[in-house]
Write a structure and sequence with these properties.
The protein is α/β, with parallel strands linked by helices. Helices cover about 45% and strands about 15% of the residues.
Length: about 290
């Protein structure tokens, strides 16, 4: 039976915010993102996580891009990574403090460079049972390029149809014609939560299928998926479950796009605008009648 993610469900999933709390009351987030040509992905996925309620976020990114984005993200801590000759993450990087972060996101703008692929697979293989991870964009593509089968038991994976086509080695047309089927297969195969992005985004744990009711063509812009990754990471840091973070995250992301398009039209909304409208989406859910 298909269920729908609506405002009533979103309200029931909102994490509690105790007034007697501090940044340490929430899980720390490590966002592994960006490369020389995709510094914006690192910015969008980081700021949106904090905007969605995260208390502490560290961005692991190649040294080359940190000076570009740091002035616009004073709230973020930085973990510099070595880059290779292509300006992507080198595979000789080791994040010694990886286990210190209960929430990790990886993939936004990191590229599918061979060394970055090796680095990505190494990170994924180190995730322990006390950590949750959001896997997006090029991290999904790197998984598809790998012959290894890595357990994603503590993961939310967020492919668009083309990325899922690569991951499952199924034609894009077949994915588009059977979205619910292949979203469920992905969750069952990798033991993860799957978010299959698109109009009426699908969320599944391999058993139940949820369809999102928010969002419009305003979100069909570069960087929109990076914002979604950040929102979900921010919700995970507030100790929501994987499934509930996915459900609430796609609803808030879509609702922010809906509200932004009312002011800016569906033509003119940028991914960075969606971040600015996240508070309005929260406010609409909180004031649900």
């Amino acid at each position: 039976m298909v269920k729908y993610i609506d405002k009533k469900l979103a309200y029931s999933l909102l994490p509690e915010r105790d007034d007697n709390s501090n940044k340490g009351s929430f899980h720390k987030i490590l966002n592994i993102a960006g490369s020389i040509n995709y510094s914006g992905a690192a910015y969008l996925s980081s700021v949106s996580a904090l905007r969605a309620g995260g208390g502490f976020l560290a961005l692991a990114a190649v040294n080359d891009i940190i000076p570009r984005i740091a002035p616009n993200m004073p709230e973020v801590v930085y973990v510099p990574l070595k880059s290779n000759s292509n300006g992507a993450i080198s595979d000789d990087n080791v994040i010694n403090e990886l286990n210190d972060y209960p929430v990790i996101s990886i993939g936004c703008g990191i590229t599918t460079d061979e060394q970055t692929k090796n680095f990505t697979l190494n990170v994924l293989s180190q995730i322990n049972e006390n950590q949750n991870i959001v896997i997006d964009a090029d991290a999904i593509n790197n998984l598809a390029l790998s012959k290894e089968r890595i357990s994603l038991k503590n993961a939310i994976i967020t492919p668009h149809p083309k990325e899922l086509s690569r991951l499952l080695n199924v034609s894009l047309d077949e994915i588009l014609e059977n979205r619910e089927k292949y979203a469920r297969i992905t969750s069952q195969t990798y033991e993860c939560i799957t978010i299959l992005k698109g109009h009426n985004t699908i969320v599944t744990d391999g058993e139940e299928i949820y369809i999102n009711t928010t969002g419009n063509s305003a979100l069909s812009k570069a960087g929109s998926g990076d914002v979604l990754t950040g929102i979900i990471s921010g919700l995970l840091s507030q100790k929501l479950s994987l499934l509930n973070s996915a459900l609430l995250g796609v609803f808030i992301h879509g609702l922010a796009g809906d509200i932004a398009s009312e002011d800016l039209t569906k033509y003119c909304v940028l991914a960075s605008d969606v971040i600015d409208y996240i508070p309005f989406a929260f406010n609409e859910i909180l004031n649900m009648e």
